[in-house]
Amino acid sequence: MPFKYFGKINFTPYTKVDKFADYLQKGKLMGTQCKKCGEKYFPPRADCIKCLNDTFEWLEYSGKGTLHSYTKIYAAPKGFEDIAPYTLGVVDLEEGGRLISWIKDIPDNEIKIGMPVKVVPRIFEETEEIKLYYTIGKP
Amino acid sequence: MRVGIVGIGHGKFGNRSDATVQELAFEPFKQAIEDCKNLRRKDIDALVVGSVPEYHMQRSLPGVVAEYVGMNPKSTWLTEAACASGSAAIRTAYMAIKSGMHDIVAVIGVQKMRELSTEEILALMGRVGDVQWESIFGTTFPGYYALYANRHMHQFGTTKEQIAQVAVKNHYYGAMNPNAFFQKEVTIERVLNSDDVAYPLKVFDCCANADGAACIIMTNEDLAKKYTDTPIWFEGLGSASAQMSVLRRPNLVEIPSAVEAAKQAYKQANVKPSDIQVAEVHDCFTIAEIMAYEDIGLCPKGKGGKFIEEKQSYIGGKTPVNVDGGLKAKGHPVGATGVSMTTEIVKQLRGDAGKRQVSGAEIGLMHNVGGIGQYTFVHILRR
Fewest CB within 10 angstroms: A39, A71, B134, B166, which? Predict the structure, then answer.
């Protein structure tokens, strides 16, 4: 599963961490871990910021986390007008690291910074092309 | 040897569909030369252009600007640091003069953001964050600052009303600035009731894309007196970077590059935040000005909302901020902004700011942020 299928619009089809898309299709949210110093990364990185080592292994993330911040986008960029307005959340993941994605199935008035959330891998079903992503929902 | 500013120029900011990029650049360049006494164009050794290239049809801008303003065959180059490109240009000019490589350097910050179609701008704006892990979900510029705003409100109890007060202040002063895009005051009700952009930010919380240019002429201490009676000196220059991705930032309530750049500038200038008598800060969004108060130490962390509510950033308050209208009222031609801020501080320290003069100002500060905080430059100037 090439990385170009990750995201509603993908801008980076080539990356050293392209297996992320493979795992996501199988319903797994994966980060990376430096083989030398053990530093964990989400989003995944091939090269370690801390020790400059360039070997890593994949590590499964539970998807559990806490909502760090959020916003509701009304003025959308090109390619996202059809889904606006949409709510974006930033999640502090339980295993460390953060991600940003759409908040799904939590009503606006229930969204609170600090609330526990769960990140779920998904596949766009309404489009012909395969597109992989993940959403933020209640645990 | 000190480095100072001997001439300034500032074009009209706004919708400049009447001019090309190089024609925009010409306006403040001519003014800046005429602002000096006895400066001939041929005395200038180099031209540094601060601009963000992807907005223009014309590639490799310094080439065309140097030709149009008649600087050939002098040295010219471009600096890019997103919305802080103008300040990055000033920093390289400072280095060139300080090293002795050049004696007199012109810096032009210029941007024509309205050259591309709305369609193309929307596509560009969709790629402001980390394109691998963030832009694929439809993040936007206001969206990132909205993430800061919601977190700041959550952590410190900052209110939407306090945030909106920044727009009210900056439009109040913008109404006195003939170069500003918007020269009209706004009420807090108008700000709070404007259209949603990215919750909690509304249209009036956001600066406008604009076209425009500004210019300064810099030189060393030996030559400065020859060209002006009122040189304004660079006392401290801070520059720092921070993570491009908000996913790797230590927190979302400050711009770490701004905190670091301010620290460097204060140290070099040997002054404290309380010594600053007038400041220009990067208010690309209203919340950005509140974070700036805190990041450069005008008030304690978390107290930025209170600072504007108590009118401490108005003339007569603790530290007047953006009394030229800020990016909010002037518009934000990204490459021009850092140079524009610098011209305002120079006017203030010369005592030439007219109706919006901060009386007796001797020390001023400018704070220019690139992108969503990837770069910050903080310059402290003194009369």
Answer: A39
Phi and psi angles of residue B121, each rounded to the nearest 5 degrees, phi first: -65, -40
Write down all domains in chain B, each with its CATH number in brackets.
Answer: 3-117+209-227 (3.40.47.10)
As a whole number of angstroms, the distance between CA B338 and CA B368 comes to 6
Asked if residue B249 lies in contact with residue B242, where contact means CB atoms within 8 angstroms, the answer is yes
pTM here is 0.96
CB-based contact B137 A70, cutoff 8 Å: no
pLDDT in tens, A3-27: 999 999 999 999 999 999 999 999 9
Q: What is the pLDDT of residue A127?
A: 67
Contact state of B247 with A100 under an 8 Å Cβ cutoff: yes
All residue ranges of chain B with pLDDT < 70 are: none
Give me the residue label for tokens 């209110």: B159
Q: What pLDDT shows up at residue B117?
A: 76
Amino acid type, B200: P
Active site annotation includes B83: yes
Find which of B132, B160, B206, B285 to mutate to test the A interface (most A CBs within 10 Å of its CB): B132
Number of folded domains that form chain A = 1
- The per-residue pLDDT for B128 is 83
Residues of chain A contacting B246 with CB distance shorter than 8 Å: 90, 98, 100
**CATH number, residue A40:** 2.40.50.840
* A35–B contact, CB cutoff 8 A: no
A120 lies in which domain range? 3-137
Q: What does the DSSP 8-state code read for residue A6?
A: B
